[in-house]
Amino acid sequence: MSAKILDGKKLASLSEEEIKAEVSELISKGINPTLATILVGNDPASETYVRMKRNTCKKVGMESIAVELSESTTTEELLVTINDLNENPNVHGILLQHPVPSQIDERRCFDAIDIEKDVDGVTCLGFGNMSMGINAYGSCTPAGIIRLIKHYELEVQGLNAVVVGRSPILGKPMAMMLLNLNATVTICHSRTQNIETIIKNADLIVGAVGIPKFIKTEWIKQGAIVIDAGFHPEKCGDIDLDHMDEISSAYTPVPGGVGPMTINTLILHTMQSAKKLLTN
Ligand code: NAP
């Protein structure tokens, strides 16, 4: 058996062309789609992620506003910034780069983002709406994974899906999105017992653990769909993808699978948020 490769790089690049055309159309109608990025402090990885997001905006002809705040910013100061962006009619999406320095109440700041501008899917309200099947921008990495699943026409209904990881931005929303597609979902985390046995029964596995090659090749059931959200400096993910071509029915390569879909989904959501102005 030769597995389908879920090529996120290719899909993101196709999607970028579509977004570019839509952005150009919106601009011709007087709407300039704009993403505001907020970076607090000097974490080099966060600086890189924000730069990549802004570069992608530029690539599709979208505006981005960069707000950079010092390491010593307080919760109250950050809330004022978020409120200003909420009230700015020229801003269609707000990205608060995670993590913020430890003195800041990150949850409170995420939840201060206007639901209409929560293009990164970080608010509790957005998560709740998405879980209930009410229109909301889902968290970008799991939403990008669902876009890959749909693009490759994989049937999820009735599958025994196992999500390894339960973070607010990845594991939890991923589980809800799969549940909404009628999968039977199990969520594993650091206190889960017999994780190997649980994974061995999975028809669909999502690795969102943050540990290189945590999920072993021999735990993967023949014919399973394998989604690896991890990415580590040694250029591997959270799943050992050796022999996936023969074992799985479909899998995301690392790199080039889930990774490119995350930023693309953020940009897509921002364009969609701006587009809503045409109908409001
Ligand atoms: P995180 O916040 O650190 O969460 C990791 C999750 O894994 C937690 O729920 C944790 O359980 C669980 N876990 C840790 N050790 C475990 C163990 N031994 N057995 C079972 N579960 C365990 O990480 P994250 O932000 O969700 O990211 C997860 C991975 O996705 C990372 O590799 C990250 O680089 C990647 N990622 C990729 C993108 C992208 O754009 N491609 C975006 C975000 C993240 P507890 O809740 O019990 O602690």
Largest sheet: 6 strands, parallel
Give me the number of helical elements.
10
* Ligands: NADP nicotinamide-adenine-dinucleotide phosphate
The CATH C-level class name of the largest domain: Alpha Beta
Q: Report the end-to-end length measured between terminal Cα atoms.
A: 50 Å
| Radius of gyration using CA atoms only | 19 Å
Annotation, overall tally of beta strands: 9
Can I get a quick summary?
With 280 residues, the protein is an alpha/beta fold. It has ten helices and nine strands.
Overview of the structural elements:
This protein has 280 residues and is of the alpha/beta class. The protein is 42% helix and 14% strand. The chain is globular and about 50 Å long. The chain has 2 domains: 30-116, Rossmann fold; 140-259, Rossmann fold (3-Layer(aba) Sandwich), CATH 3.40.50.720. It has helices at 8-28, 44-59, 75-87, 106-111, 124-131, 140-151, 171-180, 195-200, 244-247, 259-279; strands at residues 4-5, 34-40, 63-69, 93-96, 160-164, 184-188, 204-207, 225-228, 250-251. Strands 1-9-8-7-5-6 form a 6-stranded parallel beta sheet. It has a 3-stranded parallel beta sheet with strand order 3-2-4, with helices on both faces. The model has no long low-confidence stretch (mean pLDDT 97). Strand 8 (225-228), helix 9 (244-247) and strand 9 (250-251) form a beta-alpha-beta unit. NADP nicotinamide-adenine-dinucleotide phosphate binds next to helix 10.
Structural features:
10 helices; Rossmann fold; 3-stranded parallel β-sheet; 6-stranded parallel β-sheet; globular; binds NADP nicotinamide-adenine-dinucleotide phosphate; 280 residues; alpha/beta
